[in-house]
């Protein structure tokens, strides 16, 4: 479905989503990256709906796969088999208690219905899974910001130089702006 289905606030659609959640039908929500289809570039989400949820009826699994896949062309992204397997294994491990499931910050989380209610029935996985942890590179924040702002200043200077050169060349062939 379109990603709007997870969070639209129009009264009728929000009520449908709330009722599906309260009826304990939503098993899992997976957000996918953009450009997976030839004719549609928008990102989509997968809704797993199930009536057979005895051991997990008060939970919903959220998987954030938006960063997965590799760009093949400027308009197409493909998910490698390993990443598809990672999504599938996560879901199956969560479903079957004989396997070990563990929340992974930035990728997946098993959320209670109460948490979904607190979010006003919005099913966007990013709200639940959070952002992935980034390893500390050891460079102190102040030093990193000084270095990065210095690099940015150099890029701005080059940009201005290139703008001037473009204006000069356009002027030489009779075009001014």
Compact summary:
The protein has 177 residues and is an alpha+beta fold. 40% of the residues lie in helices and 16% in strands.
Describe this structure in words.
With 177 residues, this protein is of the alpha+beta class. It has 2 domains: 3-129, Vaccinia Virus protein VP39 (Rossmann fold), CATH 3.40.50.150; 135-177. Helices cover 40% and strands 16% of the residues. It contains 5 helices and 6 strands; from the N terminus they run αβββββαβααα. It has helices at residues 11-22, 81-95, 113-118, 125-129, 141-172; strands at 26-31, 45-49, 59-64, 70-73, 76-78, 108-112. The strands form 2 sheets. It has a 4-stranded mixed beta sheet with strand order 2-1-3-6. It has a two-stranded antiparallel ribbon with strand order 4-5. A hairpin with a 2-residue loop joins β4 and β5 (76-78). The longest helix has 32 residues, at 141-172. The N and C termini lie far apart (47 Å). The relative contact order is 0.13.
Topology readout:
Elements: H1 11-22, E1 26-31, E2 45-49, E3 59-64, E4 70-73, E5 76-78, H2 81-95, E6 108-112, H3 113-118, H4 125-129, H5 141-172
Parallel strand pairs: 1-3
Antiparallel strand pairs: 1-2, 3-6, 4-5
What keyword list fits this structure?
5 helices, Rossmann fold, 177 residues, four-stranded mixed beta sheet, 2 domains, elongated, two-stranded antiparallel ribbon, 6 strands, alpha+beta
